Predict the structure.
Amino acid sequence: MSSTKTHVGKYEFENCLMNAAGVCCYDRNELEKMIHSEAGTFVTKSATLNPREGNPQPRYYDTELGCINSMGLPNLGIDYYLEYLLELQERLSERTFFLSMTGLSSEEIHILMKKVLDSGFKGPTELNLSCPNVPGKPQLAYDLQTTEQILSEVFEYFDRPLGIKLPPYFDIVHFDQAAAVFNKFPLTFVNCVNSIGNGLVINDESVVIKPKNGFGGIGGQYIKPTALANVHAFYQRLNPSIQIIGTGGVLTGRDAFEHILCGASMIQIGTSLEKEGTEVFSRVTHELKEIMDEKGYKTLEDFKGKLKYL
Ligand code: RRO
């Protein structure tokens, strides 16, 4: 029988599928649903120092091929998520869960990182460097100089497993430049990709979400080729000690299979989870295992990163 077990850094997971930050992870209620699903783990909504209400509604819209969002970082604040994760560390000590966090300034990022250090949270932390939806705040990881500065400051004191959530890059030179920066640091993982920032969806003659006159992050089937390209580009360029989490356009087992072929060790599902609910994890796991069985693959290692070229 095939297995979809995986590991990220020193952490092991029974299944390689999980939610993408922002979906089914706002509060305890949603996170408990994740725990009781087939997913191998969860990541929290990206937390800021203080709770935030986010952007005005409507701020999320489903389309046939995906979705657009401009949530604006609504979250319950870092203390809420840390308290819950510490509780789970006792209650489900054999399992590992991810914390996502992001600051609106480098000062805020350092305060958050130090809070995580002081809390005794032992799981992996994902630092979101790619929120496209806070008016006036650019996606940090498109500014590689500032990104390098922040990472070098963070790694002066942060000695726990840390990964970064990246925006999609669209140019080979940018893959090279970004990978050269990330390779300077003892990152546990990079997560490719966040939504494609600042797209526009129109219904009849109008935009479909209120913030930023309709501009928002695009997710779902639209973005799979871009997500796969980013997963593979970083898989080719990063130190092998930095693992890849693949996110973007995963609707079926075949999509998850392709992310793993491109080098992903873990797969996150956002839009399809929002549309289908946590049942998506059992369906996609089943579909992925069927493909593995057909091909005679027993573990992810049998095909991870083994994309064939012409
Ligand atoms: O909350 C959001 O608007 C949001 C975030 Br922080 C993010 O990282 N990606 C996204 O599509 N939306």
About this structure: Residues 6-54+73-196+221-302 form a domain with the TIM Barrel fold (CATH 3.20.20.70). The mean pLDDT is 98.
